[in-house]
Design a protein that fits this description.
- By secondary structure, the protein is of the alpha+beta class.
- It folds into two domains: about 160 residues, 2-Layer Sandwich (Fructose-1,6-Bisphosphatase, Chain A, domain 1), CATH 3.30.540; about 140 residues, D-Maltodextrin-Binding Protein, domain 2, CATH 3.40.190.
- Helices cover about 30% and strands about 25% of the residues.
- The strands form two sheets. Strands 1, 2, 3, 4, 11, 12, 13 and 14 form an eight-stranded mixed β-sheet that branches. A six-stranded mixed β-sheet has the order 7-6-8-5-9-10, sandwiched between helices.
- About 5% of the residues have low confidence.
């Protein structure tokens, strides 16, 4: 019997290292888009983030396929659904939002972030660009304490009981949209406080899982691709999330069916339906908000603030990066 140690196959890459590589990707996108903060040009900000993120991915040791991206190939020149990224390595699915909150960046408003999530191939829901109904609470609560199909009043009462709080002490976070008027009114009527977001429901959903945010629950409808990104982060901290795709017509439903063959497109989705297996998540702040501090720019350097999470270990890291433009191989345009 030999005591020789089997060599590690060359394709095995430590996900610890990958997590830190992802930070460089979101940092690059944030630094590029920060040039456009407050300039009123959301498309230019988004384009700069996309290009920087795509370039940064070329250095990451994966064989990645974008499954949540900027759109179909004919809609997006880069980071389109199906695009290959990475320098070679294990097969991974990639979910990206190069600049979540393009309006927030353009108007220098809180909560603009750059986001990337990574999972082993086949473990992200292939979500079409439709709306998704969502409800999110944080870790350490009884399973099923809230339910997507229950009223917001019942969910608030059950959550308050589980947290040992009064409903009046709960904070519900949702997008400030006309479609949420009834949700907001009923939450107020139940006695809860409501934090309204103009944009950026990835950050809002994650906030419900972090004690530092003082948000207890996220609810309402937003983009389905953003729902998958949020689910990746929520997996890393053992929060709870339920969702359901919302369709405006049969063509949207048929597209969802084609993207996920054999699955009922109208089914209620649990957290593992959205993001399964080992998941990595990274986000970098562009403008300061509930989740992250924005970029601080100086004549020759910039400071970034990022959140990195890994589902396998449950590790949550906040990373402050100092970027010296005299020594970096690239600088913001």
């Amino acid at each position: 019997m030999s005591d020789a140690i089997e060599p590690i196959p060359s394709f095995v890459v430590s996900d610890r290292n990958l997590a830190l590589e992802l930070v460089r990707v979101t940092e690059a996108a944030a630094l590029a888009s920060a040039h456009w903060t407050g300039r009123g040009k959301k498309n230019d900000a988004d384009g700069a983030a996309v290009e920087a993120m795509r370039t940064a991915f070329d250095t990451v040791a994966i064989d990645g396929t974008v499954v949540i991206g900027e759109g179909e190939m004919d809609e997006a020149p880069m980071l389109y659904i199906g695009e290959k990224v990475g320098s070679g390595g294990p097969a991974m699915d990639i979910a990206v939002d190069p600049l979540e909150g393009t309006n927030l960046c353009a108007k220098d408003m809180p909560n603009a972030i750059t986001v990337v999530a990574l999972a082993e191939k086949g473990n992200f829901l292939h979500a079409p660009d439709v709306y998704m109904d969502k409800i999110v609470v944080g870790p350490g609560l009884p399973e099923g304490v809230v339910d997507l199909d229950s009223s917001i009043e019942n969910n608030l009462r059950n959550l308050a009981k589980a947290k040992g709080k009064a409903v009046r002490d709960l904070v519900l976070c949702t997008l400030d949209r006309e479609r949420h008027e009834e949700l907001i009114a009923k939450a107020w009527e139940a006695g809860a406080r409501v934090r309204l977001l103009t944009d950026g429901d990835v950050a809002g959903a994650i906030a419900a899982c972090l004690d530092t945010s003082q948000v207890d629950i996220y609810a309402g409808s937003g983009g389905a691709p953003e729902g998958v990104l949020a689910a990746a982060a929520i997996r890393c901290v053992n929060g709870q999330m339920q969702s359901r795709l919302l369709f405006e017509d049969d063509s949207q439903r048929e597209r969802a069916q084609k993207m996920n063959p054999g699955k009922n497109p109208d089914r209620k989705l649990g957290l593992h339906d959205l993001a399964a297996g080992s998941v990595l998540f990274s986000a970098t702040g562009v403008t300061s908000g509930t989740l992250l501090k924005g970029i601080h720019q100086y004549p020759n350097h910039a400071v970034t603030h990022s959140l990195v999470m890994r589902s396998k270990s449950g590790t949550v890291r906040f990373i402050e990066g100092y970027h010296n433009f005299k020594t970096k191989t690239w600088t913001p345009q």
